[in-house]
Amino acid sequence: MAKKTLDDLGDLKGKKVLVRVDFNVPLDKKTGAVKNDRRIRAALPTIKHLLDAGASVIAMSHLGRPEKATPEERANLTMDKVAAKFSELLGTPVKKAANEVVGAAVTAAVAAMKPGDVILLENLRFDPREQKNDAEFAAAIASLADAYVNDAFGTCHNDKDASMVAVPAALKAAGKPRAVGLLVAKELEIIEGLMSAPKAPVLGIMGGAKVSDKIAFINVLLTKVDQLLIGGKMTYTFLKARGVDVGATRVGDEEVVAAGPLLKHVGTKIVLPVDYVVAKSDDLLQTQVCEGPIPAGFEGVDIGPKTIEAYKAAIKDAATVIWNGPLGWFEQAAFARGTQYIAEAMSASSGVTVVGGGETAEAAEQFGYADKMTHVSTGGGAFLAYVEGKKFQSLAQIDDRA
Length: 402
What we know:
Elements: E1 16-20, H1 38-52, E2 56-60, H2 71-75, H3 80-90, E3 94-96, H4 104-111, E4 118-120, H5 135-142, E5 147-150, H6 166-173, E6 178-180, H7 182-196, E7 202-206, H8 211-222, E8 227-230, H9 234-241, H10 253-259, E9 270-271, E10 276-280, E11 283-290, E12 298-303, H11 305-317, E13 320-324, H12 337-347, E14 352-355, H13 358-366, E15 375-376, H14 380-388, H15 393-396
Parallel strand pairs: 1-2, 1-5, 2-4, 3-4, 5-6, 7-8, 7-13, 8-9, 13-14, 14-15
Antiparallel strand pairs: 10-11, 10-12
Pfam families: PGK
Protein name: Phosphoglycerate kinase
EC number: 2.7.2.3
């Protein structure tokens, strides 16, 4: 059933709206500065919509893993620099409420808000109750607002986070409305469209490292696509599972086991690279293109030129393309050609092109093609989980449209 959206919240003049955003952005390890603001930019349409409607906005997000950080690393995980970047992009002053997630200082700051004001709460994970879905913690946050908006698709699959589940539940108990933001609404619309009635022919492209992490996603895709092109480290998992020597490429036994049941689709729906770039493990400057077994001491780092051309041709002929996972070690310029050329081919496609979040989204943006795709998801794990058909407790808390 469709979820309520911003248009279903009614008159927001003078109302305080709590917005769960996904500002879990990459930071410079030394300075704590925001390195990539894509997730902040993705939330701006919802924030601006609420402000234009006369509301004040209380934004909240987690940032990194402070529970595993050193004291120095934890100091960089405050929301101060995120608030500064948020303010810059929004073009409106944004202040951090306090140095704690909830408490007297936060309550006072929110009470003083006027229509058009924006406050960002401290890193939710600075309070251990956030990841325990703690009801008391959630009630304290929920008491700050008149309405709740989930615009954090990238964390929708985190069903134990209080900000995603217990907070909207507390607003429901208080009779306050809950809706999805513009970003989440678009994500759901795009993915549901892909799964229900994608325009044929449908092409899937899978990269990344672990088959085992994406086995359910792959099995769903195989029911929807005409072809599934494989790249990235998955290539060598499939090769090893077929008995091909992969040289020094590290492939875990559990990955080979996971790939086993999929081998029956190779040559029909699943397409493996015909060639690949390999590099000397102890000297990455020594590279060559291989077909078949990989020489001893070499490891696979990218798809090869023949494969790139074949995959580009497949993309050109497809009406719908779904891509998840880089095709090679794209962070290294020497091994980024496969990923870059696939992104370029998708950007030139006249069909529907969807990028499935995470590293794939980073790659599309790094090469300058993100804006030329039909949709670039903000959620890696959430994208996979939703396609797999998993039910999100976070979305279950949102009011349904009648």
